[in-house]
Amino acid sequence: MGSLKLDHPQENNSNSSPMEMTSALDPVEFRRQGHMMVDFIADYYQNIDKYPVLSQVDPGYLRKRLPESAPDNPEPIETILQDVQEHIVPGLTHWQSPSFFAYFASNVSIAGFLGEMLSTGFNVVGFSWVASPAATELESIVMDWLGNLLRLPKSFLFSGNGGGVIHGSTCEAIVCTMAASRDQMLSRIGGDNIGKLVVYGSDQTHSALQKASQIVGINPKNFRAIEATRSTTFALSPESLKLAISSDIEAGLVPLFLCATVGTTATTAVDPLGPLCDVAKLHGMWVHVDAAYAGSACICPEFRHFIDGIEGVDSFSFNAHKWFFTGLDCCCLWVKNPGALTSSLSANPEFLRNKPTDSKQVVDYKDWQIALSRRFRAMKLWLVLRSYGVVNLRNFLRSHVKMAKLFEGLVAMDQRFEIVVPRNFSMVCFRVSPWVATSKGTPTTPTSNSFHQNGIENNVEKCTNEVNCKLLEAINASGHVFMTHAVVGGMYVIRCAVGVTLTEEKHIAMAWKVVQEHADVILKNHGDDGDAKLKLPLLDKIA
Amino acid sequence: MGSLKLDHPQENNSNSSPMEMTSALDPVEFRRQGHMMVDFIADYYQNIDKYPVLSQVDPGYLRKRLPESAPDNPEPIETILQDVQEHIVPGLTHWQSPSFFAYFASNVSIAGFLGEMLSTGFNVVGFSWVASPAATELESIVMDWLGNLLRLPKSFLFSGNGGGVIHGSTCEAIVCTMAASRDQMLSRIGGDNIGKLVVYGSDQTHSALQKASQIVGINPKNFRAIEATRSTTFALSPESLKLAISSDIEAGLVPLFLCATVGTTATTAVDPLGPLCDVAKLHGMWVHVDAAYAGSACICPEFRHFIDGIEGVDSFSFNAHKWFFTGLDCCCLWVKNPGALTSSLSANPEFLRNKPTDSKQVVDYKDWQIALSRRFRAMKLWLVLRSYGVVNLRNFLRSHVKMAKLFEGLVAMDQRFEIVVPRNFSMVCFRVSPWVATSKGTPTTPTSNSFHQNGIENNVEKCTNEVNCKLLEAINASGHVFMTHAVVGGMYVIRCAVGVTLTEEKHIAMAWKVVQEHADVILKNHGDDGDAKLKLPLLDKIA
Fold first, then answer.
1. Domain-embedded: residue A8
2. For residue B7, is the peptide bond before it cis, meaning its omega torsion is within 30 degrees of 0?
3. Which residues 33-72 on chain A approach chain B with CB closer than 8 angstroms?
4. What does the pLDDT look like over A445-463, one tens digit per residue?
5. What is the span of the domain harbouring residue B423?
């Protein structure tokens, strides 16, 4: 052990002489390569709309192009950057492309990027206050700033004995709050009763809830995904929650945790926080609000009403890395009772003991999260807030909403298409209706037409879904845009989620043109099957 | 909803005109600010040894300096950087300082930094293969590269039906593997038996194990931290494990999970993997190896023996962000049976459905981790491996070990000090022995001296611990170096952990000088209490 390089002369068989370790962080070389990388990335943004948005490579493409093992000797940054350009870029799906409308965006900005650079450069590990006071204190401060912008009740801020913390993801935020609620409940009903605890969401709740529930040891039989229907625009009905809870209590189970969503993934539906809390609080449940995507919008006064009722919940999270320009990862979580979190998640090994912690005058964020290590994520949030200011940030968000509205208007003008649910934020759910599309008469809609009154209805839906699935595949294969889908109430819908920093109105117009052109082709091909079946072109095929 | 900026003229009350959103990622401005930031960080590294290593601020310092709320209007990057310099830097504990010897290092390098820049710049979210094929494929490839460098058995590589994944932290790696083992076990013994499962480690195991166990719902009563003593140099004894398991089985409990450590936090002790597996495997337990710090060294042939026996375990993790130059965060985890992980952690909501996933020809890393979102961490690992090459990386690690050896030699030459445990890697555990220090006769050691044979022994230990605690405080308050402590076998020891990229031999020499100077003062003060009590200067005080 402890051998030196001279003991291993067989390895120094290259022409290059061995490097000094300190040169791996030599400031002069850092500067040279750093500038080169800034230019590389600036060029990437400059050219980003030239790449297919959705990567067109086949599975396994990269293993064919890269060597089988790590190189023995150093390679210059120039060679590496060339490989990035030739081998990595083609395999990227370009999340920062202005024509990326898939999933929800994960947008970045100059300020977010610079904040990440600072955080990486300092590379402090702020698990305890003492391990880097600035990291902890800046996080507490920006979380209070942001909480105020969202007009969260004071009970969620440090000044009101609550507090905020930055996690990596919503799933982590739910794991931590659910573990806290579980341990609180078990201390009341006895530690052996974990098998009785029940977790609730709707069938529109993000899969993070089920995963978190699985991770913290809730019996999978006790996870409730309550159906949310078109009648409530896919929001969770308090009445349904009440029924589910009653039935569980009758069965001897213990309601534990409700996750309400503001802005569901499929359709941006908004669960009614106040009425849901009224139900949940009767049973001493923990209520968490997942506003992963839509939370950002709530800094605009005109959107704030979507989180009305927030005063009744226990915890609230949103992902600044989705729609708040920080880049991955930055999930902002506030809790009313940090003590519940820390009593579940604290670990105080001797090697971390220190006077400030013992004094109880400081926050040690290690006890608010899963990991011990933590990155200095507050830096990018601070830079975003300062570089743009609240006025511009609100306008950025409004600008995305405006573009979604524009897209919605374009869809609405084409009678072959249908807007499936009312738009709440910057996402439009739509679909083409093929029986309408190929009809030469007055357009009919699936909810009003007579097919619904007989057995043919299911076939109509199935055929509509298939056409929309094909349409989406064709759009994405074009490389011009990338959108994704959802299935709600049995309907396959295409989602156009606006949220990338570089998106402009021209990209919206282009995206719509791509959708229309591919719809033309697909519907024409179906129509060509035979004039007599114009109104239901695919029925033959299905039957 | 969907209002435009013109609807809110009251907010545009500043002199600055509102920004276009796209300017937040304008390539020209990106370049300008990016270059500025590279220079800022290069300057930081250039001046880093001028700052006190451990931040000297008081709790609450930053709230006094920053405004109470986020600014309405944008601020220029120049102002922000000035604030970073004036208000953030003093509150940092400088983890990249060459005189940082605390905890374990979390070292960064130019390549790691550039990799993070690329990852942040692309900002792809590689939850599924299709969401960015390059992110998934590069990760699988570098994890195979690294697995080969560590000479992991083929069963841990993708080519052998195992595989590697990059997590954010060891705690996450343990949560995921423990959840997998839990669900495997519950499917055998029945889902209602979670309360019977038992988790094992030693009392030297990182607190991440207890936290993970708590998170996944293991009854806290069923967590075993088996005592590891100086007789095994603080490694977990297979015999003790056997006894603990037997007693649990007798009590009707079910042994589930063992975490063995290669390189414990307190003293870098190494648990004997082979013999521990022999015990654990008799009971069908999952064995995880946490080599968070020391795993990196195992790419050097002369250190590889520390993970002998790895073929018997189920999962293995180490933190490239500690001692492999990537910067935070990069925890490399390999598992033999990815199916166990994915069957616990899979969530397949409709909105993520896609053809490559359905074809089962691709890896979807979302099912290997807690969160859905994931950063492109493989990029920095790839850049580190390529920029330095294996030969240099090995030499970097050896160079740290050599410096630790140098420090160890300096300590050994000063008879007032004691090396507490044999050094395995790049960390030295030492302490001052005050009764020896002030003795004018032949030095005696606490294990050999006669005090141990009478009741005075505890007082001697307590006084020694107090002196070392004071010494460490004095060293750290100097700002010249930062070291931390551990308590093992009742002894308070000072840890000097070498691992920062910028550390050179001169910093080791300086660190030792700082230790000696402060020891001189502290021991002199104690000695001055009275000549008659030279051998036990603090006993009076304690008695």
1. no
2. no
3. 33-35, 37-46, 54-55, 57, 59-63, 66, 69-72
4. 444 444 444 556 788 889 9
5. 395-542
